[in-house]
Design a protein that fits this description.
Layout (H helix, E strand, L loop, with lengths): L3 H26 L3 E3 L3 E2 L4 H11 L1 H15 L6 H21 L16 H29 L4 H30 L8 H4 L9 H20 L8 H19 L22 H35 L2 H50 L20 H48 L9 E8 L7 E7 L4 E9 L3 H17 L5 H15 L6 E9 L4 E7 L5 E4 L2 E4 L19 E4 L5 E5 L1 H4 L11 H12 L5 H15 L9 E8 L2
Length: about 650
C-alpha cells in the first residue's frame, strides 16, 4: 500500500489538474447557450465523472472549484453555490457509490471488465447524473430562477450523454494506461462487505429515483409551486446530500491487505468494452452533429430561433442517448455471448491452473460443454489438460529420481564414513611422530594410507593410490588396505607380492593401485621399503634431504606374478620421511599448471628446516598446496603423511 505522503501528494496534484481542466472546458464553451436566459452548454459533464472515478475526493472537489471559477465570468449569486454543490456531487457520487454499492465477486476491487460491472457502472452514472442535476434543478425552482422540468430535462439528457459515453471512454482509456495512479479507498476493501450496514444507501437511492419521477410528473407549467413540489424538492435535496456524506466505510471484520491488491485488467472483455465505447462515442457524436444541422434548419425555417434554443438539445440528446443505449444493449449481448462461450471456460481453465499445485498436481479437469464453446477453447483446454498431465508425470519422475539420488547420496555418505573408519587412529607413541592428511576429490576416494606398530621399535607405513575414483575405487582401496593388514608380518616386498596376486584374481574392473610400503626399524637403524609404481617419497636423513628413489616396479593389480624388490637404507640422526599421492605434486592451478616435483622438494626443505613438529609441517605443506590451487577445481585425491623418529 502506498505511503500517506504519496497519497496526499497525488490528491493535491489531482485537485489542481481537475480544477484547471474543468474550468478551461467551461470557459471555452460558455458562449454556447443551453437554455435561453437560464444557462450555458457545458461539455465538462464528461470530465466530472472521470475525475471522480479516477481521482476520488480531490477530483470531485477540483470539479466543484473549477465550475465556480468559470462562474466568475458572470454575476455571482446563490445559484453559483448550488452549482458548486451539484458539480461536486456529479463527480463524487460515482466514486462513492462504485466502491460501496452492488459489490461484485465478494467486494473485490475491479472496474468495467464484464457484463456485471458494466451494468453497475451504467446505473451508477445515470443515477449520479440524475441525482446531482435534480438537486440543482430543485434549487433553481426554489430560488425562482427557472422551473424544475425546464432546466432538468435538457441538462440531465446532455449530462447523461457526456458522462455515460464520453466520460466512460475517457475513463477506460486513462485507466488502462495509468492504473497505478487511480485513487482507491483501501479502508473500504480492507474490511468484509456487510450488506445490512449499507441498506440506508440503497433505500435513499430508491427514494431519490421515485422523488425525481414524481417531481417531473407533478411539475406545474404555470409557474405556481404546489406543496407536493416543495416536499419532493426537499426530499431530493436532503436525501442526495445525506447519501453523499454518509461514511464510506461501514463494514466490520478486517481482512488481509491482499484483498485490496489492484492490477491493471488486460482481459478480453475489458478490451472489447474499451473498443466498443470508443465506437459508441464516435458514432453518437457524428449522429448528434447530423441531427443538430437537420434540426436547426427545420426549426429555423418553420418555427423560429427562440424555440430552437429551447428545444434543439432536448431533441438531439433524446435521440443520441437512445442510440447509445441501443449500442450498449448490443455490447451486453456480445459480452454475454463471449462469457458463455469463451470467458467462463477460460476462467475455469485458469482457476484449475492456479489450483494445480495446491491440489497436489491433480489433473482433474472441469467439465466442458463441447456444443457451447468454440474450437479454440477446446484446443486450449486439451493442451492444458495434456500439459498438466505431462507436468504431473514429469514431477513424479523427478521425485523418483530425487529419491534415487537421495538413496545414492546416503549410500555414498555411508561409504565415506566407512572409508574414514578404515583409516588408522592417530599414533600416540614416544618413539615416533606421525601426521597424516587425506582429502578425496569426491565424497569417497581411491587414496589410502595406513601405519601399524609391529613392535616397540618397528613401524610399518603404507600409502596407496587407486587408478579410479568414487565408490569402485574406494572398494578397491579398502580391499588393498585389508590385504596389507593381513600381510603386515611379512617384509615390504612380500606384502606387495601378496597384495598384487590377490588383487589380480578379483580385479574384474581392470583397476590398478600404486603403493609404497616401508618398515622403519628404530633399533636396527634401518628403513626397508618396496615401491609398486608409486611416487618417490622425500626423506631427511642425517641433515640431508633427497628423493627416496629405488629400482622401479610395476603397480599392483595388473600382472599376477610380479616380483617386487626390497630396498633398504641406513637411518642416521634426524630421520624423517614424507610420503604422498600424486594429488600433491600434480595439483593444478587455475591455468592448468602442475605444482610439480621441484616445487614440492623445495617446499619440504623449507618446512623441515623449521624444527617444527610433524603436525605443523604437514599443515604448512597443505596450506601451500591450497594456495597454489585456489580457484581451481580439485582434480584428484590428496593424501600425505610425515613420519619422524624421535631420538
Amino acid at each position: 500500500m502506498k505511503t500517506k505522503a504519496v497519497i496526499i501528494k497525488r490528491q493535491i496534484i489531482g485537485f489542481i489538474i481537475c480544477t484547471f481542466i474543468l474550468a478551461g472546458l467551461n470557459i471555452m464553451t460558455r458562449t454556447i447557450p443551453l437554455l435561453n436566459d437560464y444557462g450555458e452548454f457545458r461539455v465538462s459533464g464528461f470530465f466530472s465523472v472521470f475525475a471522480g472515478m479516477f481521482f476520488g475526493p480531490s477530483g470531485a472537489l477540483g470539479c466543484a472549484v473549477g465550475n465556480f471559477l468559470s462562474d466568475l465570468y458572470s454575476d455571482l449569486n446563490f445559484a453559483n453555490v448550488c452549482g458548486f454543490l451539484a458539480n461536486f456531487l456529479f463527480a463524487w457520487l460515482p466514486y462513492r457509490l462504485w466502491h460501496t454499492l452492488f459489490p461484485v465477486e465478494n467486494h473485490k476491487l475491479q472496474y468495467i471488465t464484464s457484463n456485471t460491472t458494466l451494468l453497475k457502472y451504467i446505473f451508477i452514472i445515470v443515477f449520479s447524473t440524475v441525482a446531482s442535476m435534480s438537486l440543482l434543478s430543485s434549487s433553481f425552482d426554489i430560488l425562482g430562477i427557472c422551473k424544475f422540468n425546464v432546466f432538468f430535462t435538457p441538462v440531465a439528457l446532455y449530462d447523461i450523454y457526456f458522462a455515460l459515453f464520453w466520460g466512460t471512454t475517457t475513463f477506460l482509456i486513462v485507466y488502462r494506461l495509468f492504473p497505478q495512479y487511480i485513487h482507491i479507498p483501501y479502508k473500504v476493501y480492507n474490511y468484509t462487505y456487510n450488506h445490512k450496514r449499507y441498506l440506508p444507501d440503497y433505500i435513499m437511492c430508491l427514494v431519490i429515483i421515485i422523488a425525481v419521477i414524481f417531481r417531473i410528473l407533478l411539475s406545474e407549467p404555470d409557474g405556481n409551486r404546489s406543496l407536493s413540489e416543495d416536499v419532493l424538492d426537499a426530499v431530493i435535496i436532503s436525501f442526495t446530500i445525506v447519501l453523499a456524506f454518509l461514511p464510506i466505510r461501514r463494514s466490520g471484520k478486517k481482512e488481509p491487505n491482499e484483498q485490496t491488491a489492484f492490477k491493471k485488467s488486460k482481459g478480453m472483455q475489458s478490451q472489447i468494452i474499451t473498443v466498443f465505447f470508443l465506437f459508441i462515442t464516435f458514432s453518437t457524436s457524428v449522429f448528434a452533429l447530423i441531427l443538430s444541422f437537420d434540426t436547426f434548419n427545420y426549426i429555423n425555417k418553420y418555427v423560429g430561433v427562440k424555440y430552437y434554443l429551447e428545444t434543439l438539445l432536448v431533441n438531439i440528446f433524446k435521440q443520441v442517448n437512445l442510440c447509445g443505449l441501443l449500442f450498449i444493449l448490443l455490447l451486453m449481448i456480445l459480452l454475454n455471448w463471449i462469457e458463455k462461450r469463451i470467458t467462463r471456460y477460460v476462467i475455469k481453465i485458469a482457476d484449475t491452473a492456479n489450483n494445480f499445485v495446491e491440489n497436489g498436481l491433480k489433473t482433474d479437469f472441469p467439465e466442458l460443454n463441447k456444443d457451447k464453446i468454440s474450437d479454440e477453447i477446446l484446443t486450449l483446454a486439451s493442451s492444458y489438460k495434456k500439459m498438466s498431465s505431462d507436468i504431473a508425470g514429469y514431477i513424479k519422475k523427478v521425485e523418483e529420481h530425487t529419491k534415487r539420488e537421495e538413496n545414492i547420496r546416503l549410500t555414498i555418505d555411508m561409504a565415506a564414513k566407512i572409508q574414514s573408519g578404515i583409516l588408522p587412529k592417530p599414533l600416540n607413541d614416544k618413539r615416533f611422530s606421525l601426521s597424516a592428511y587425506i582429502k578425496p576429490a569426491r565424497i569417497v576416494g581411491g587414496d589410502f594410507y595406513d601405519y601399524i606398530k609391529l613392535d616397540d621399535d618397528r613401524l610399518l607405513l603404507c600409502i596407496a593410490d587407486v587408478s579410479s575414483k568414487g565408490i569402485p575405487a574406494a572398494m578397491f582401496m579398502a580391499l588393498a588396505g585389508i590385504l596389507v593388514k593381513c600381510n603386515r608380518n611379512l617384509s615390504p616386498e612380500k606384502i606387495l607380492y601378496n597384495v598384487n596376486k590377490y588383487l589380480c584374481e578379483t580385479n574384474s574392473e581392470n583397476m590398478f593401485v600404486t603403493m609404497f610400503v616401508g618398515i622403519i626399524d628404530r633399533k636396527k637403524r634401518v628403513f626397508e621399503f618396496a615401491n609398486a609404481g608409486h611416487n618417490y617419497p622425500i626423506i631427511k636423513n642425517g641433515g640431508e634431504i633427497k628423493w627416496l628413489k629405488a629400482q622401479p616396479d610395476l603397480m599392483a593389480g595388473v600382472f599376477p606374478e610380479i616380483t617386487y624388490h626390497l630396498n633398504s637404507i641406513d637411518i642416521k640422526s634426524d630421520f624423517e620421511v614424507f610420503v604422498y599421492t600424486d594429488g600433491i605434486n600434480e595439483a593444478e592451478d587455475v591455468n592448468g599448471s602442475f605444482f610439480g616435483n621441484e616445487r614440492l622438494e623445495k617446499l619440504f626443505k623449507t618446512v623441515s628446516m623449521l624444527n617444527a613438529d610433524t603436525d605443523e609441517q604437514l599443515k604448512l605443506i597443505i596450506k601451500e598446496i591450497e594456495s597454489f590451487t585456489k580457484g581451481a577445481k580439485q582434480s584428484d585425491d590428496i593424501t600425505a603423511m610425515i613420519i619422524k623418529i624421535n631420538e
